[in-house]
Amino acid sequence: MRQLLIVDDERHAVRGIKAGVEWETLGISVVHEAYNIRTAKEIMSDSKIDVLICDIEMPQGNGFELLHWVNIHCPDTEAMFLTCHADFSYAQKAIQLGSCDYMLKPVRYSELESTVKRVLDKLAKAELEREKLHFADTYEHYYRLWEAYQPMFMERFWQDLLNHSIPSTKAAVREALLKHNLAYEELPQYTPVLISVQRWHKELTLREEKIMEYALRNSFEEMILDKSGLGRVVQVRSGALLALLPCDEGEGGKLKEKLDHYIKECNRYFFCDLCCYMGNGAPIEEICSMYEQLVELESHNVTRTNERIALTHSGECPDMAPLPVMSGWGEMFKLGCGKEMLQEIEAYLEEVKQTGQADARWMRSFYEDFLQMTHQVLHAKGLRAHQVFSAAMLMKRGDAVTRSITDLLEWIEMLIKEVSGNLSVMDETQTVVDKAKQYIAKHMSEDLSREDIASHVCLHPDYLARLFKKDTGLTISEYVLQERVALAKQMLAKTEVAITTIAYELGYGNYSHFSKMFKKATSVGPQEYRRLHQKTF
């Protein structure tokens, strides 16, 4: 939120300006008042003022003197003059000093509001450009470091150990270290810390991502590793580093503080969310086992972000939240209530997140149930997944979607948007006859009447009958019979379902009526048709 300062020796003018504009709607949270230059400087020294509105002629100094001071001490502040003096020389001097506008009293509040909004837009653009430059500078700095980086033998040792190329025994570890003239007895125990990137806030190419991972690594080495040279940071996979820190009794509390500070700085400067999973001190031969425990801890974290998470051995697992019944969301989908549906899902997942009743398995089950519900909606609407989902959606892998509740929500929002858009287009382009056919297909097992179908498409039965006959060449009853016979043929030829059951599922109350209608349409009875067409099981 922004802050604004009004400087004028006329108190009623200041209060009029303050009351005449709805500052909060412009994004301004604080409006300061000053009635002389001295007070204005004090306020600007204590607070970050984004916009300055200033009179020119005032006792104890004028507005030009204040703007000159602002240009030196608060160069990011945008200033404008609001004065009674319609003097060209005044306006010229205001421009020379960098004033963004020069307005005359009395000013319309709508004009003032428009001017301030334009100034705020200018500030936002300038800040965005500064952020881009900052990111470019940071990226360029670590790119040069990354190019110059050469892996060392200790990193290769740790990677071999974690990949089980070196057996996790004292003898095997001692032998591998002695190859590098490093005595096993001199090595301390190590505290492993798994640094896992959960997401990048900016779109990065694979190359840029590798460089930023190096930035995370380099920063950890500078901020946390001691000068002994025994500590090491190892790349274990894309987006994950493992730090091996020599244990030092009494340093546990300091290490936690350093990790918390590291997470905060990475989030701020490297545009990412990450967690640090902190293990317990262990000798080298036990580090591989400890690392696997940290990976397991990481896989079950779907709710916490930008935190330090310690490995515990309590063995207690919280009860998982029950998976929701999604049929209600499916109906909202069909009715085009995607926005309301998303709000309900967000509220539900936020509740699960707050209670901590979710892990990776729960997330995967939720994801699969939601995907199944979506396919059922598409099937009911006569759509196929590949016709609806974009390439970006189809490329989303389940393991990426279920990394966290945040990732899951982003995927759900994208899915709802794409499906809702296609359903909306389909509803707009679908004819009345198409809707009637769809209704018939859904209610095939019921006693369908012309009135029921007409009511569904909001037309008079006689008018619908004329439209249906014109479009299909059949009456509604003829079409219903045709569809029932076609479905009966499939069931008779491809299943072993009892003929009485088939009759019931197609809306016929008794076998004889079904048999009569089927024979009338096909010239053979249902039993004879099954005998002629069914495959040998």
TrEMBL record:
Database matches in InterPro entries: CheY-like_superfamily, Homeodomain-like_sf, HTH_AraC, Sig_transdc_resp-reg_receiver, Tscrpt_reg_AraC-type_HTH
Recorded superkingdom: Bacteria
Record-listed 4-aspartylphosphate modification sites: D55
Annotated organism of origin: Paenibacillus oryzae
Gene Ontology MF terms in the entry: DNA-binding transcription factor activity; sequence-specific DNA binding
Gene Ontology terms: biological process: phosphorelay signal transduction system
Keyword S-adenosyl-L-methionine: no
Domain HTH araC/xylS-type: from-to ranges: 434-532
Name under which the protein is recorded: DNA-binding response regulator
Pfam families in alphabetical order: HTH_18, Response_reg
UniProt entry keywords in alphabetical sequence: DNA-binding, Phosphoprotein, Transcription, Transcription regulation
Annotated Response regulatory domain residues: 3-120
Transcription among keywords: yes
